[in-house]
Every structure is written in structure tokens, then in C-alpha cells.
Amino acid sequence: MTIHSRARGVTLLELLVVLMILSIILTAAVKTWDVTLERGRQEITFRKLNQLATVIVGDRDYIVAGRRADFGFVGDMGRLPDNLQELVVSPPITPPESSRWRGPYLRATFNESPDGFRIDGWGDTIIYSPESLFVRSLGGRGLADKTRWQTVYLPFDRNDLTGNSVAGQIVDVRGMPPPFNATILGSLKVEFEYPVEGKPHVDTLTWTPGGGQLKDDGSFSWEGVIPQGTHRLNVLYIDFYPPPPLVETTMTTADVTVYPGIGAHDVRLRLNLDWNDKP
User: Which residue, of 89, 120, 130, 163, has the fewest CB within 10 Å?
Assistant: First the structure.
């Protein structure tokens, strides 16, 4: 017995159904890809904005020996950057060797242009406002769609960053301040070095038995003018007894950590001498 077979073709309706299914799958895949790509751009931008804010004001979580050790551009320069370019290229300082700039604070990755640090995930320039203290991406849609903007505000205001107070006292090896009656035959000098407009600035306070900027109990203070950061404090005692040329000096140095909005208080500078040994 002979069996006859007949090949069956594809109808137009079946072809249209297959094409419709493929179209649905392709549309879903494209939408998924668009969502994934958009989320990637947002994440890249958010990381860049946070990185920019961190290098400007420093990393609060970077602690060394119990002290915060990173105060960023502001801690080095004593001011906010005028623009983001100052994070990678030193601003002009005269003379150049006096500059406190310690950058570049950001470096481009191997697949990034030198200006890539200030380009968001959509290829647009990141906005920085030293007046309003934020960095911002417009989210690829420009000024028209504010719902797309990504903004990271600096965690402190301008006074917190550059206008702190520092106060302390000079004591001897026993932890005692200079005698209140100021009968010691000598003078005290306190030198505090901190950055102003990118250059080292030294404020000097002095005291002699006749008076001075220091109080008779050896206390000192600077109010509302000190930027955040770690700054050098020197104390020098010049002993006038016996009289010149047999003058003796005693000096001590300390690094003072000035926290934004907190400053530094109760700083104690201990000199290696005993006030009781002084006539």
C-alpha cells in the first residue's frame, strides 16, 4: 500500500501571528535595555556627584589615629573652589611655591577624557555652584525638566567650612597655666598657621608681663576665621632670666584638627618647663 504525504505551507495568518509575537518580544527587550541604560547613567552620575562633593569638603569617614584626616580642597586651600577645574589644575598662586594646593583631587579613569570628571552619564557638563554649595546634573533633559535633575548638596555651609573658632591654653609640665600674677620673667608667643586663599597664613599672639594678646592665664582664641583642616600651632617661651645674652627658649608644636562647624576647643599646649622654677 502506498502512503501519500502532502506538504503543508504556512498561512498568512500564521505568519502575522509569529511576526506579532516577535514584535512584542523585541519591544519588551528594547524597553528593558532603555531602562537598564538609563539606570546606569543615573548611577554613574550619582557616583560622580558624590565624589565631587567629597573631594571638595573631604571624607568625614577617613579617620587616622582617632582623628579625621581628609578635609579635601577646602582643608588645603582655606576656601571653596571657584570652579571644578581647580580640583585637577592648580589655580594661580604667587609665588607658586607658596601654594597649599595638594591636587589633583580627581583623576580621569583610563577610558575617560581629562575632563571626564565633570561630565555626567548623559555627556553633559555637571553644574557646580560655590554660592549655593551644590553639584548638579540636569539628567539629560536640560533646564526644562526639573524632575530629572540630580543634585548633591555639600554637607556644610560656608561658615562651617571656612569660619570656625579655635581656643586653648598654654600649660607647663604639671598642666598648670602661667601664674595669674604674671611675675615670670619671660614672654610667650603663639603662632597658628592655616591657609588663606590657597597660601599659608600665620597669626601670632604674644604675651609679656606687661600684657599682650594672650590672657594672663595663657589662654588664646581665634573667633570665626579658621577653615576646617589640620593646622600647625607653635608655642614659644622666651626666658629673660638670666638676662641677655643668656636667653633660653622652650618651644612646643602641635597639629590642631579643626572640624567644620565645631572648630577646636580646649586645645592644651604643654611646654617642657615648670612655672614654679621661674623667679
Answer: 89
